[in-house]
Design brief:
Elements: E1 5-6, E2 11-16, E3 22-28, H1 38-48, E4 65-69, E5 71-72, E6 81-82, E7 87-92, H2 114-121, H3 137-154, E8 159-167, E9 170-171, H4 192-207, E10 214-221, H5 235-244, E11 249-254, H6 265-268, E12 272-275, E13 278-281, E14 289-290, E15 293-294, E16 299-305, E17 315-318, E18 324-327, H7 338-364
Antiparallel strand pairs: 1-2, 2-3, 3-7, 4-7, 5-6, 8-9, 8-10, 10-16, 11-16, 12-13, 14-15, 17-18
Length: 365
């Protein structure tokens, strides 16, 4: 299987399967001299790990991370520092229940990658989906911490935040948007009223063995103007690619996104005035990117995540032998996979920005 790596200068390669002994990531291109501890990575992993509430899968994984290489500490450093060599991170799997999948080893689950993996490779790991499982994203979140620290090292002052702005058809009220609320509920929701309503709706879906989709929003502030390239290295193209690579994401928009199609030219234009001797945009329909290059405004990306395909309602499908049948997917699954997609989206934003910051420094100094 190819294409397990992402990035150009700041590059990651993830490895491992959902029900294998471990998974991890190798990070290449991280600058030397950056303080990095397992505790910093662990704090991010704890936001993504399963079993944190009744609204996510009850698989009990501590997601304890180990740094195997690329970091060194002695009496001349104030803590462990990156050396500039590849950083290898290991996360062991400790709570696999492969027997949950024995009944479906030869049956294609609708909405999953079972059929496509068989069509491409002639072989698939049916235990939780193998590489197609969202379990792989733990490695991305770990790498995202390193990316954020590299980003701070290169340009500093960048803040990346993420939240859930829609569950099923139910959106937040933008008038109640408050980043301070994101850590106060199990949905990473910036609207406390919406969070309470989502709790009732998702509880009902979970009780019925069903699931709900969601939309995550990731915003990066403090990004300077100039990151990206105008043709094949567009910042927004790489952001879209990064978000689309996350499991279950079926759509990505930047700034106004699809709504921009309904605007007039006058409505869509982000007008400019001078403020404190610098150009100042009066709106941000572009989402912080114009011509593939950052404008200096907040970069805003949203990703639509489909409902979890593993549900208890019988669905029609076929077997690997071509027999028609019905299937019920048992096991421990997220009723809304978008919840744990929030920290993954933040990690992918960090990976793209770190990569572009290093490329910008290499070309423009």
């Amino acid at each position: 299987m190819s294409f397990n790596s992402f990035g150009r200068v700041f590059r990651i390669a993830t490895w491992g399967e959902s029900h294998g002994p471990a998974l991890g990531v190798v990070i290449d291109g991280c600058p030397p001299g950056i303080r990095l501890t397992p505790e910093e990575i662990q704090a991010a992993l704890d936001k993504r790990k399963p079993g944190t509430s009744k609204f996510v899968t009850q698989r009990k994984e501590p997601d304890a991370v180990r740094i195997l290489s690329g970091v060194f500490e002695d009496d001349r450093t104030d803590g462990p520092r990156t050396t500039g060599t590849p950083i290898s991170l290991l996360i062991e799997n400790v709570d696999q229940r492969s027997k949950d999948y024995a009944d479906i080893r030869d049956t294609y689950r609708p909405g999953h990658a079972d059929f496509t993996y068989d069509a491409k490779y002639g072989l698939r790991d049916y235990r939780g989906g193998g590489r197609s499982s969202a379990r792989e994203t733990a490695a991305r979140v770990a790498a995202g911490v390193v990316a954020q620290k590299a980003l701070a090292h290169v340009i500093g002052g960048v803040e990346i935040r993420a939240c859930l702005v829609q569950m099923g058809p139910h959106k937040i009220d933008r008038a109640r948007f408050d980043w301070a609320e994101v850590d106060n509920n199990p949905f990473w929701c910036p609207d406390p009223t919406a969070a309470k309503e989502w709790e009732e709706r998702l509880s009902a879906a979970r009780k019925n063995g069903s699931s709900m989709g969601a939309v995550i929003e990731v915003a990066a502030s403090g990004v300077p103007a100039g990151l990206g390239a105008p043709v094949y290295g567009k910042l927004d193209a790489d952001l879209a690619s990064a978000m689309m690579s996350i499991n279950a994401v079926k759509g990505v928009e930047i700034g106004a996104g699809f709504d921009a199609a309904a605007y007039s030219g006058e409505d869509n234009a982000d007008e400019i005035r001078m403020r404190n001797g610098e150009p100042h945009f009066l709106s941000n329909h572009a989402g912080g990117v114009l011509g593939g290059i950052s404008t200096g405004q907040e970069i805003v990306v949203r990703a639509a995540i489909k409902p979890t395909s593993s549900i208890l309602t019988p669905r029609r499908t076929v077997t690997a032998q071509g027999e028609e049948t019905d299937i019920v997917t048992k096991g421990r699954h997220d009723p809304c996979v978008g919840i744990r997609g929030v920290p993954v989206g933040a990690a992918m934003m960090a990976l793209v920005l770190a990569d572009h910051a290093l490329m910008h420094r290499a070309q423009c100094g």
